[in-house]
Amino acid sequence: MSGMNFQFPVTHNPNSQLDGIDWNNLPFGKIFTDHMFVMEYADGAWQQGQIVPFGPISMHPATSAIHYGQSIFEGMKAYRNLQNEVVLFRPELNAQRFSESAARMCMPTIAEDLFLEAVHQLVALDAAWVTNKPGYSLYIRPFMFATDEFVGIKPSDTYKFVIINSPVGAYYAEPVRVKIEEFYTRAAVGGVGRAKAAGNYGASLYPAKLAQQQGFHQLVWTDAKTHTFIEESGTMNIMFVINDTLITPSEDSDTILRGTTKRTVLELAASWGVPIEERAVTVTEIIEALKSGTLQDAFGAGTAATIAHISTIGFRNELFELPAIESRTLSLRIKTELDNIKSGATSDTHQWVRKIC
Ligand SMILES: *Cc1c(COP(=O)(O)O)cnc(C)c1O
């Protein structure tokens, strides 16, 4: 943190919902902690941020974000470790990505130390919501949207930045069945695929629904122009292991979201001496590796599941079964190591963990 000091005024919630939580039946993303952080942008500057009781935000019907989609978000987690401390994992990468998303969507950026301090103070206040139950965490959702009350296409002059937190249970990482998509597109060169912009997710729902009707959990997105290069899997980055080499699509084209989890997996594997290739990955080479039996692993990497193993890949009219999960030694080792770093069971030699309290 820089020399700046942000102390946000707090209005305490007199009606804590914490005692009523059924920790054994926690629906994902539907329960929220007692407080939220709110900060408005007006007159060309961010105004004083505040922590207030969690609750609805009222909106003018012409609020520009609803009409024209200037809306971005982040997704990160807080964990309670074995030392009973609440920690964040590489939050500066989220702060940085949020600024990049904002710039791409013609929205005002937020100083990274201000973003981080807002997350810290909010999570610290609701720290009792971060349980030490194994696998549980606090999902943190920072977001920003345009608030001009104006029907007309131009960058909004006013914005709202909000952070809400949701306790989430152990993510049941059932291996996923994916389909390689050769028609619909998530992101095109020159588009907004690199930004965590709300519209990207709205646009992905229909093709994902079609795949679900065919028995898949999600899509593997390919490049918009030729559909011959693999990009991402659902809302996760995609990684493969072929001949003991960890392979993942490079981010050069800006059509791929720059995931913290993927970056971390690559850095961890590199520190173990695993050969790594970050490069264009063709659909053809993956299908050939499946056919010849050299594809040892394929998985999605993202904050929600950390590692989501792929069990089946559908391509055109064929289904390819991947090796048994137990045989996927590299990704299993990575998952265990990341869990151990977050829980404090292993020392954090990479200095990825940030203590909150
Ligand atoms: C958020 C996201 C990811 C994963 O990013 P993490 O920082 O690892 O959580 C990957 N792809 C898309 C499209 C995403 O929205």
Describe this structure as you would to a colleague.
- Strands 1, 2, 3, 4, 5, 6, 7, 8 and 18 form a 9-stranded antiparallel β-sheet that branches. Strands 9-10-11-12-15-16 form a 6-stranded mixed β-barrel, surrounded by 4 helices.
- The protein is globular and about 60 Å long.
- Helix 2 crosses helix 3.
- It contains 7 helices and 18 strands.
- It has 2 domains: 18-168, D-amino Acid Aminotransferase, Chain A, domain 1; 176-343, Alpha-Beta Barrel (D-amino Acid Aminotransferase, Chain A, domain 2), CATH 3.20.10.10.
- It has helices at 64-68, 91-104, 112-125, 198-213, 260-271, 283-292, 329-343, and strands at 35-42, 45-46, 50-53, 71-73, 76-80, 86-89, 137-146, 159-168, 176-180, 218-222, 230-233, 236-242, 245-249, 276-279, 295-302, 306-315, 318-321, 353-355.
- Bound molecules: pyridoxal-5'-phosphate (PLP).
- The site of pyridoxal-5'-phosphate has 14 residues, from strand 12, helix 5 and strand 15.
- The site of pyridoxal-5'-phosphate (PLP) has 14 residues, from strand 12, helix 5 and strand 15.
Q: Assign a percent range to the helix content.
A: 10-25%
The number of domains: 2
CATH class type of the largest domain: Alpha Beta
Q: From the coordinates shown, what is the CATH architecture of the largest domain?
A: Alpha-Beta Barrel
Mean pLDDT over the full residue set: 96
Q: Rg to the nearest angstrom? A: 21 Å
Q: Note the total helix count.
A: 7
Structure ligands: pyridoxal-5'-phosphate
- How widely separated are the two ends? 16 Å
